[in-house]
Amino acid sequence: MEHTVKAFDEDITRLRGLIAEMGGLAELGISEALSALVSGDEELARRVVARDKKLDALEAEVDALAVRVLALRAPMADDLREIVAALKISGVVERIGDYAKNIAKRIGKIDGRAKFEPLTLLPAMGEIAAEMVHDVLTAFAARDPVLALEVIERDEKVDAFYDSIFRNLVSHMVENPSTISTAAQLLFVARNIERIGDHATNVAEMVHYSATGTYPREIER
Amino acid sequence: MEHTVKAFDEDITRLRGLIAEMGGLAELGISEALSALVSGDEELARRVVARDKKLDALEAEVDALAVRVLALRAPMADDLREIVAALKISGVVERIGDYAKNIAKRIGKIDGRAKFEPLTLLPAMGEIAAEMVHDVLTAFAARDPVLALEVIERDEKVDAFYDSIFRNLVSHMVENPSTISTAAQLLFVARNIERIGDHATNVAEMVHYSATGTYPREIER
């Protein structure tokens, strides 16, 4: 029995490690995609796109390990909830990586960078979203429902940035019709970041559930 | 033993039923959101938004049942893979519902509907995406990897629609700066449908995995 418990703890530790690694890559993807956006560095953008495959592979590894743990150890109660949370969270973090990749893919389509005010707002917005991703995975590793709630609250800031950038870009389009195509790309970047915030919030709800057995009160998104 | 197997089969049947119900609601959400878009029916749009809560509740129900099955029946091999697939798929279908809700929420912000060509293209695009959602859940229920592959292939059509609508809307914006704000909303609608196709493709990959133990060859998205 002692042996089994130890083996289970090792599996859980490995599972947490894999998810932390996924989170680190997703965070890096977000911040590098936004630096590439501001600097126009297409080489960096390509690296972000290429790195996304690593996230896909890690998700498959988390799923395979989780399935193995479920099959071999038949965990109960809190342990079972944690494995289930890991399975769901790996899927969401992989999708957060997709958004970073989507941002990186737009960089080749963006012209006349320096003229857009949102180019200073988007990195600030992205930083909040990347921190949400970071903190929610810290909350998962520490089973910390209070930190999970803090992440959920921060999503409002991301939404406020989004609204402001949206209005700014639409005005910009009206005044400079020749830049509409680029402005549309920046709109999608803003939207991608906004979705990253939503997904981090989603994960925070799962972490709260995994740590306490209850979902946080419904938050309107 | 016979009793346990029977109880397990009942649980799996219920799990499939819940996921089929989620899929049906998501499909309905997509098609109603797009009818509301074309007709400008804000009451219908509000119903789509309200119905999304039902999807959230069903996801929680799938998760709770899957956890119970894992805890009580400790399924192995194919059965375990199916439960894990159900856990991941419920999360994705819930997000597909979010996209339908997002489309519905934009309807109040859209003016001068009749003048936009994409208003005839978006419902056609949405229909393909809704069918992908329908068929991939049929594939899940039937453990049919061939149908899952067909769904994956259909995503190219959705992407082609998206590219065409994007170009159309940007040209429209350039020619009619006064309608930029509405055109931007339609761009997001197109993007939401495109993401629904991506998510259906994601589910199709999980169904393929659940049915065969292997992922389909990597498809560049």
From TrEMBL, chains A, B:
InterPro entries: PhoU (IPR028366), PhoU-like_sf (IPR038078), PhoU_dom (IPR026022). Keywords: Cytoplasm, Phosphate transport, Transport. Pfam families: PhoU. It is found in: Cytoplasm. Residues 19-107, 124-207 form the PhoU domain. GO terms for cellular component: cytoplasm. SUPFAM superfamilies: PhoU-like. It comes from the Bacteria. One of its GO terms (biological process) is negative regulation of phosphate metabolic process. Belongs to the PhoU family. NCBIfam families: phoU_full. Homodimer. Plays a role in the regulation of phosphate uptake. This is Phosphate-specific transport system accessory protein PhoU.
